[in-house]
Amino acid sequence: xxxxLEVRDLRLQFGGVTAVDxxxxxxxxGEILAVIGPNGAGKxxxxxxxxxxxxxxxxxxxxxxxxxxxxxPAIWRRLGLVNLLQSFGFYRVLPSRVTKWGMARTFQNLRLxxxxxxxxxxxxxxxxxxxxxxxxxxxxxxxYRRAEAACVREARGWLDFVGFEDDEQLYVTQLPYGEQRxxxxxxxxxxxxxxxxxxxxxxxxxFNEKQTLMRLIRKIRGLGVAVVLIEHDxxxxxxxxxxIVVLNYGKEIADGAPEDVKRNPAVIEAYLGVYESEDxx
Length: 281
Ligand SMILES: Nc1ncnc2c1ncn2[C@@H]1O[C@H](COP(=O)(O)OP(=O)(O)OP(=O)(O)O)[C@@H](O)[C@H]1O
Prior knowledge:
Blueprint: E1 3-14, E2 17-28, E3 32-36, H1 43-50, E4 58-63, E5 66-69, H2 74-78, H3 82-87, H4 95-101, E6 103-105, H5 118-127, H6 134-139, H7 142-161, H8 177-189, E7 195-199, H9 207-222, E8 226-230, H10 234-240, E9 243-248, E10 251-256, H11 258-263, H12 265-270, H13 274-280
Parallel strand pairs: 3-8, 3-9, 6-7, 7-8
Antiparallel strand pairs: 1-2, 1-4, 4-5, 9-10
Helix pairs in contact: 5-7, 5-8, 7-8
Bound molecules: adenosine-5'-triphosphate.
């Protein structure tokens, strides 16, 4: 399998804190990869750099052959011009473009549009790909109305795909937490991604909801979409992931199959023996 995402020597600094410290890893097409690590290990920071939300201090990110973040030549750094160049779009790509290229994500703290209905939350994600022009949109021409109707049909299809069973006209804030998570995943899928990043998708879910989530993630992979998830639920990670990347203090300390990672001494040490005690019980 070829690499869909290549992260090289990624580094992100917040003042004196190095959140990501020379991280390199790959995501292959159609795989389920988990990124784990203790609290504050740099997982979300890495996701934010990969998806274009944060500008890393150094390193490169290539997705589907296209550079999302390019290494900035040292000369610009020395001249203190990095921020200026990046604000003009040099050496980086904005999140909206990253989404168009085929990378979608969800957030640790849900980021749905609170003032929109469930259906609108999903159709909004597809509007970016609508090819209708300014006048047809303004005048609501038959062509525009047909495109809108197709959008609604597709959005309903994605809600169905994720197993959403509530009323699509409800505001998302009226839904239980588990359903909101499903809507967020449906919205991400509606952008037709090749790669889906899920930041703690199982947080706040009960046992049954976690089982449903695992089935859903496998179903997504079945579409040929690669899934990378940050997750603290080790039971879920060990059962679901085909490969695991482990971070600690912003650095990768392991990359391998769940069984190997579980036995890796550096990983056990990072988790202060959590696995050992789990195995013993
Ligand atoms: N916006 C920010 N400003 C300053 N420091 C930050 C910011 N975001 C993260 N950090 C710091 O960077 C480090 C890595 O944080 P990050 O949230 O990426 O870790 P994480 O592995 O995702 O943690 P968790 O599992 O708790 O979500 C931490 O020391 C954190 O305090």
